Amino acid sequence: MVRDLRPSARGELEITDAIRRLWKERGRVTVLHAEGWWKDTGHPGDLLEANRLVLDSMADDEFRHEGEIREGAEVSPRVGLGPGSQIAPGARIRGPSLLGRDVRVSDDSQVGPHTALGPGVSLKKASVERSIVLGGSTIEGVHLVDSVIGRNVNIRAQIPMERAVRLTLGDSSEVLL
User: Fold this and answer.
1) Predicted model pTM
2) Which of 155, 76, 148, 144 is nearest to 118 (CA)?
3) CA angle, 117 as apex, 114 and 160 as ends, to 5°?
4) pLDDT confidence tier of residue 2, bands split at 50, 70 and 90
5) 12 and 73 share a domain?
6) How far is Cα 103 from Cα 81, in angstroms, rounded to an integer?
7) Beta partners for 104?
8) Would you state the pLDDT for residue 35?
């Protein structure tokens, strides 16, 4: 039902169209009052704020280490590490942060705080903080802050970078700095 929605004139899937379709096809829409916080995530800054709120609200026991943390790596409390992930000696991971399945963090790389890395993300001599990086992306020689990075993105510094960069990139993008 929702999968069949088409983008509006604004180029977006509209929640009102989904509700209207539910009403037409099922004849009923129920409204519930939810307690707690709510955040519109229509802009990158809002998405990053929601990421921070979620990570901060997670219980300590939800951060599990299912990957490999090699001797000499520094991993603070409140870091989740997915199966098959590897943290190299000399890498530093600060919580709260979540690293998905098969993430690779090389030596001289840093992650966090308030960072989520999707499955298969690779960091090589890079730093990522207060950011979301979706699966399959590679970041090399760059210090990212407050960034939202899509799937299968390649970000690489061609020369040594002294300053942090803030990026918002869609899937399959490539950036050479």
Assistant:
1) 0.82
2) 148
3) 85
4) low
5) no
6) 8
7) 86, 122
8) 79
